[in-house]
Amino acid sequence: MVDIQTVSIVLASASVIAGVIYYAFQIRHQNRMRKTDLVIRLCSRIQSDDYSDAMRVVMNLEFKDYDEFVKKYGPMFHRTQAFQEVAKSLTRVWGFYDLVGTLLYRRHIDLGLVYDILGVSEIKRIYDKTKPLIVEFGKELNEPVWMRGFIYLYNELLRKEPQLRKTWEKVSLPTISETNSL
Q: Does residue 180 lie in a domain region?
């Protein structure tokens, strides 16, 4: 026979276990929400006019390698007005992606969410275009971790892009041409 005291102990234990499980799920949910909020706040930076102007400057730079860049725009920390605009633009664009990559590396944000919101094509274009500058500026600064966050972000997106793309293939959304005909 089961007495009332045993039943009350079992119920109390079950209540404690249920509370712990509920609390664990709540913490997990709040962590996801914080990560999502952080990515959304970061995105407001790339929607600013300052960032758009900086991106335009960076993408319009014309050079094949670091030496050609120096001949055309001047050496690092050059004091001309033209170089200052280039340096400011590079810093703004690189800084954003370096920050995203660092947060990703430290697991403060989720790669899937970064991919879903930022994509990969712009990150590839910027990295591929400016890689010689990233490498040489890092050497000139004698800074072994120069732009490591950006490099990490680039490598992770390339490595996991096929997997990440599959998540969107499961969603049945109209294509751009189908949307235009609506």
A: no
pLDDT(150) > 80: yes
Instruction: Give the span between the Cα atoms of 35 and 175, in whole angstroms.
Output: 29
Model confidence at 171: pLDDT above 80: no
Taking the C-alpha atoms of residue 138 and residue 135, their distance in angstroms, rounded to an integer, is 5
One-letter amino acid of 1: M
How far apart CA 157 and CA 177 sit, in angstroms, is 27
- Structural domains of the chain, count: 1
> For the chain, how long is the longest CA-to-CA vector?
92
At which residue do the structure tokens 């790339």 appear? 46
Give the closest residue to 135 by CA, choosing from 76, 70, 66.
66
- The two tokens of residue 102 are 């660092």
